[in-house]
Design brief:
This protein has 96 residues and is an all-alpha fold. It has 3 helices and no strands. α2 crosses α3. The two termini are 34 Å apart. InterPro entries: AA-permease/SLC12A_dom (IPR004841). This is Amino acid permease. It is a multi-pass membrane protein. It is found in: Membrane.
Length: 96
């Protein structure tokens, strides 16, 4: 989820023309997509072998329960994306 959120954030930054972050991601975007593919590969492997299939099913049930709990218990502004001030251009990094 974090990888997909990061990819979506980078796309939004590029689309809105915001300044690039001073903290560069090595091998962007290839590394993020390779890591996502590796995670999907592990999920497929969990389903492939009968001994590990239980872990996959329990994990899927857990994610469904978390989603149901979110829908039932998160109310009001907890569902709205907060408006954050962009201070990216104000950050200056010390030179080494």
């Amino acid at each position: 989820m974090i990888l997909l959120s990061h990819i979506a954030m980078r796309r939004e930054i590029e689309k809105k023309g915001r300044p690039e972050s001073a903290f560069k991601v090595p091998l962007w975007p290839v590394a993020s997509w390779l890591a996502t593919a590796a995670i999907l590969f592990v999920i497929v492997l969990l389903g492939w072998f009968p001994d590990t299939r239980v872990a996959l099913i329990v994990g899927a049930v857990w994610l469904v329960l978390l989603g149901v709990g979110y829908v039932l218990f998160v109310k009001g502004n907890g569902r709205n994306r907060p408006q954050l001030d962009d201070h990216t251009a104000l950050i200056t990094l010390p030179r080494t």
